[in-house]
Design a protein that fits this description.
By secondary structure, the protein is mainly alpha-helical. 79% of the residues lie in helices and 0% in strands. It has one domain. The chain is globular, with a radius of gyration of 21 Å. The chain starts with a helix and ends in an 11-residue tail after the last helix.
């Protein structure tokens, strides 16, 4: 990790402590201790199992995609990818550091740069597509509740959905309308020449075109492997499904056994979209605000609502930071190259 990344990590941990303190500041200490002691550890372990399955299934998706072009790629190296991604997603604005970090991990494992980039972009496309699919279903189930309770969040949810759709459309255009899309991207990229030297602009333009070319050729190859894509889509859907279930099991751990699993899961899908549009790393502030607003009508106790929010963030955000640090420490095992 660079010095700036370490500083960002410390800042995010400090922000997390401040937000948690702010959430419980008006709650009596005795009430907080009572609610903590009454937590059902069994359901909390199930919630923990869900986030671990989320990481595991993403590792399986990475393994399946990379293995298709790099036969000697090991599952041990695949496990490092989602964990390092979680760390750098969590400490960079708009989760912008996750993709480059994954690429570095794959390069360390001996995967060719072009193949690694294409596999990661295909994983990203499928991931975005599954988010949109889940959102459409959740919109039908929970959007009326969102409109009735928190009007302001409805705007954020729709804006987040629009961002995901635009990203998918852009990547699909590179796959299927390659020539036209490349011309449009290069035309838009001319704006960069206004701010940098001609030499740097040409170098960046060449790198951009190489990445577009690599993504196009590799993505077309992978996209025509229907069984592979079907497997990746199914695994990604399951991955997100386990993630979205976490608030439900947190509520069960706090004693809310009458929670509607379909509605709670749908609301978490909507929160996921809100988080994606906040520029602060990890969606800090926006995530906690969204959770409390959406689940406030389900969890009437202010103490338990604050605990639910803190437990949810510990599992879905801070655990990823810790495991990502561990993954950075573990040295990669480069793929062995077979010689004829």
């Amino acid at each position: 990790m660079s010095r700036s990344n370490k500083i960002s990590l410390l800042i995010m941990l400090a922000i997390g402590v401040l937000i948690s303190w702010y959430a419980v500041r008006d709650i009596q200490f005795s009430v907080l201790i009572h609610d903590l002691s009454s937590i059902n550890p069994g359901w909390l372990l199930v919630a923990l199992g869900c986030i671990l399955l989320y990481f595991f299934l993403e590792a399986v998706v990475t393994y399946v995609l990379v293995k298709s072009s790099t036969p000697n790629f090991s599952f041990r190296n695949a496990i490092r990818v989602p964990l390092v991604e979680q760390l750098f997603n969590g400490i960079t604005p708009f989760s912008s550091g996750g993709q480059p970090a994954q690429l570095v991990v794959l390069l360390q494992a001996g995967v060719d740069g072009g193949k690694a980039s294409s596999a990661l972009l295909m994983k990203f496309v499928v991931y975005q597509a599954m988010i949109v699919l889940n959102f459409v279903v959740s919109l039908l189930i929970g959007f009326h509740y969102l409109i009735d309770t928190v009007h302001s969040l409805a705007i954020f949810v729709l804006f987040g959905f629009l961002i995901h759709v635009v990203v998918i459309v852009g990547l699909l255009m590179i796959m299927y309308w390659y020539s036209m899309t490349k011309r449009v991207i290069n035309w838009c990229f001319k704006i960069v020449s206004w701010f940098v030297s001609e030499q740097k602009y040409q170098a960046w333009k060449q790198t951009l075109n190489e990445k577009i070319d690599n993504f196009h050729y590799e993505s077309v190859r992978i996209a025509h492997e229907w069984k592979l894509m079907g497997k990746v889509c199914g695994l990604t859907f399951l991955q997100l499904f386990f993630y979205y279930l976490i608030p439900y099991f947190v509520m069960l751990a706090l004693g809310y056994y009458n929670a509607n699993v379909v509605m709670v899961t749908s609301l978490d899908v909507l929160i996921f979209l809100v988080i994606s549009i906040f520029p602060i790393p990890g969606g800090a502030g926006g995530a906690e605000y969204s959770f409390e607003k959406l689940f406030g009508s389900y969890i009437h106790s202010s103490s338990k609502l604050a605990l639910a929010m803190i437990l949810w963030r510990l599992l879905t955000y801070y655990l990823g930071l810790v495991l990502g640090l561990v993954a950075l420490i573990v040295k990669p095992k480069p793929a062995k190259v077979k010689h004829d």
